[in-house]
Amino acid sequence: MEVVDFYYSGCMARVRMLLLLAVFTWSATADTRYLVKMGDVGHEIFVRQYFRGKDMRIEDVDASGNVEHATIIKSKRRLMYRLDEPARQYTESRGGDMITDLALLLTRAPRVYNSGKTVNVYYETIDTGERRRMFGLTARHLIIHERHVAERGACRGSFEKDREGWYMPRGSATRPEYFTASLAAGMQCRDTVVKHGNDSDPGMPLQETIITRYADPGHVWSTSAEVLEFSSEPLDESLFEVPGGFQRVGDFSWSEHLAYDWGQVERAFSSWFE
Known about the structure:
Helices cover 12% and strands 49% of the residues. It has helices at 16-23, 98-106, 254-270, and strands at 2-8, 32-40, 43-52, 55-61, 67-74, 79-84, 89-94, 112-134, 137-150, 159-168, 188-196, 204-214, 220-231, 247-248. It contains three helices and 14 strands.
């Protein structure tokens, strides 16, 4: 049995696909490329991702395989490019500098509301013993059941989640976290969570179905995901650069950047008096 604190944020419909995508985030040091098909309540999207170290490229792909938009993240240079393929345009965003880092240091930690309630989480993983070769890798067929039982007044309600699919070891990949914390008033809400059973990471899902049943208001959320392509062959460096012929749009001037950065510092200082 394990007791942990749990910070809750309502799992809104608009971020569901992002949470599902987080399951497939692969942070291995080797070059990696894969295409994922994901479905959620009548919607279906295709996403192709490329990883080289901490650099990544994420492409929104249509059903015909055409790239509509792409995001490139250059970790060491603290840059992010957003490419509009049909328009042949891109925007550039930079990471924090000394001023924005100062703002982060000055910002008051979020206020936390302790519900004083307990959520018991029960885990059960069934290994069917079946194995399948997928993309040259050995995947395990697992069935994973979670049951969350919340006391009345807890930040989150009770629900059950069933996951079934084919999983491979993540290697050096990091396990994603799904929940952040915020309430309508900007305050975090914290429950005490007691874990029962084995909460080990099943690995990277190559094919998976997730069904979540909520006790209140009693609805069911079903998602599916399948890796259609997977490769660890070396990637071309050009994938992580803006292609030639793209026009840069939406830039701020140096003075506008400076005004924005100092605005962050002012807001950070003001947070102590809210």
